[in-house]
Design a protein that fits this description.
The structure holds 2 protein chains of 2 kinds. In chain A, α3 packs across α9 and α6 (217-235) runs antiparallel to α9 (287-307). Chain A is globular. Chain A is of the alpha/beta class. In chain A, strands 1-2-4-3-5-8-6-7 form an 8-stranded mixed β-sheet, sandwiched between helices. Chain A is built from 9 helices and 8 strands. Helix content of chain B is 40%, strand content 24%. Chain B has a 4-stranded antiparallel β-sheet, covered by helices on one side. Chain B is an alpha+beta fold. Chain B has 3 helices and 4 strands; from the N terminus they run βαββαβα. The two termini of chain B are 23 Å apart. Classes of the chains: A alpha/beta, B alpha+beta. The A-B interface holds A 9, 11-14, 122-126, 158, 160, 162-165, 199-200, 247-249, 276-281, 283-284 and B 1-2, 4, 9, 11, 27-28, 30, 35-42, 45-46, 48, 50, 73-74, 77, 80-81, 84, 87-88, 90-91.
Chain lengths: 310, 93
């Protein structure tokens, strides 16, 4: 029986197998636009898949999106799947999406921490980290958003393997992180890097490891303001925005600090819903509204990236 | 499978930097096995802390004795996890 993307329920949470199967149907449904790349393997040998949205060309400038690097943040993987479908559906329909894809590629990694995600379904719903073993400790896993080579190991991450914010033995020690680093570096033409987390309702930009303002702070702040206005226009969801350091707390070794230091000016990280009632157990009924409002902000960032080449 | 029966998630609002430092120190006390869902950031900014049932009394005492205000955001975590499981099973059927 031919599988069809139309039977996938975006309003429900799914396991990794269901999402990976659905990715194949998305590729099958949009063969001229969507392809699936494997960029590496996780610690437990699960495939790290990236969806590539491209209308052609060679090594076009591109936008990177990832969801689910903290595995328990289920709203992000769900938003990733919805967003992938939206990009595919809107090409040729929505002028701004069409304009972006006519000039640029989009890469989307929906499950950036597959071992952790599988573990949240099988053993511990609250698992955040990777599943790598730490020598000399009974505690498992590294926080994959403290493992990047940007202020690695300074204040804002823990050296304790039992901590939820353990930075790992060295930068890029986690294959899930290294795979993205290698992919982005090998590509060499990524212009925006957007990492999606939950929850706190924030749109943040570098830096997290230092209070020093990013050289492009003014522009990043302006984009954030517009993106948040677009997001809030749908359901009135209240978002704050600013640098990671000044808006929340010092966090070292994070992905967007790394991407920004690689020269990817438009580096942002989202913290999607909750409103403070459910945390990581956000009811499935909120998946679609969350994804819809996030999409509006993503479009602002993507459009700005298209219109401001550098 | 890890169960969360009786675990609570507390929404904590520190009113000064001293209280924030105290909350951060909680994170490193491995015997309590608490888990910040939302880390303490700045005074007035809420932090959310999952506290395993056996540590509840100790954590609440510490908060109260230091005048740190909190409310119970999730009364019994396992109940919510069970509801989520049910909700996932429905569309699968």
């Amino acid at each position: 029986t031919k599988r069809s993307g139309s039977t996938f329920n975006f309003a429900s949470y799914h396991t990794i197998d269901e999402i990976y199967d659905w990715m194949d149907t998305l590729v099958a449904d949009h063969p001229d636009l969507v392809s699936k790349l494997q960029i590496g393997q996780s610690y437990e040998n699960r495939s790290l898949y990236v969806l590539k949205f491209s209308t052609g060309g060679s090594n076009r400038s591109a936008i990177w999106l990832d969801t689910g690097i903290h595995s328990r943040e289920w709203i992000t993987q769900a938003t990733g799947a919805w967003t992938a479908n939206k990009i595919a559906e809107e090409y040729g329909q929505d002028p701004s999406v069409t304009a972006v894809l006519d000039s640029m590629d989009i890469f989307l990694e929906i499950i950036a921490n597959p071992d952790g995600f599988a573990y949240t379904h099988s053993s511990n719903r609250m698992w955040r980290k990777t599943r790598s073993r730490n020598s000399g400790s009974l505690c498992v896993g590294v926080d994959p958003n403290r493992n990047w080579n940007a202020g690695f190991g300074v204040a804002g991450a823990s050296r304790n393997p039992c901590s939820e914010t353990y930075h790992g033995p060295y930068a890029n020690s986690e294959p899930e992180v290294k795979a993205i680093v290698d992919f982005v570096n090998n590509h060499g033409n990524i212009k925006a890097f957007i990492s999606i987390h939950s929850y706190s309702q924030l749109l943040l930009y570098p830096y997290g490891y230092t209070r020093t303002p990013a050289p492009d702070q003014r522009e990043l702040h302006e984009i954030s303001k517009k993106a948040v206005a677009a997001l809030s226009s749908l359901y009135g969801t209240s978002y704050q925005y600013g640098s990671i350091y000044t808006t929340i707390y010092q966090a070292s070794g994070s992905s967007v600090d790394w991407s920004y230091n690689q020269g990817i000016k438009y580096s942002f990280t989202f913290e999607l819903r909750d409103t403070g009632r459910y945390g990581f157990l956000l009811p499935a009924s909120q998946i679609i509204p969350t994804a819809q409002e996030t999409w509006l902000a993503l479009k602002v960032i993507m459009q700005h990236t298209l219109n401001h080449p550098y | 499978e890890q169960l969360f029966v009786g675990d609570q998630v507390l929404r904590i609002t520190a009113s000064n930097e001293e209280q924030i430092a105290l909350l951060r120190a909680l994170d490193e006390q491995t015997e309590l096995q608490v888990d910040f869902w939302r880390h303490p950031a700045s005074p007035g900014h809420p932090a959310d802390l999952r506290v395993p049932f056996p540590s509840l009394q100790a954590v609440k005492t510490l908060l109260e004795s230091n005048g740190i205000s909190y409310s119970i955001m999730i009364q019994d975590l396992q109940k919510l996890v069970d509801e989520e499981k049910k909700a996932m099973a429905k569309p699968s059927k």
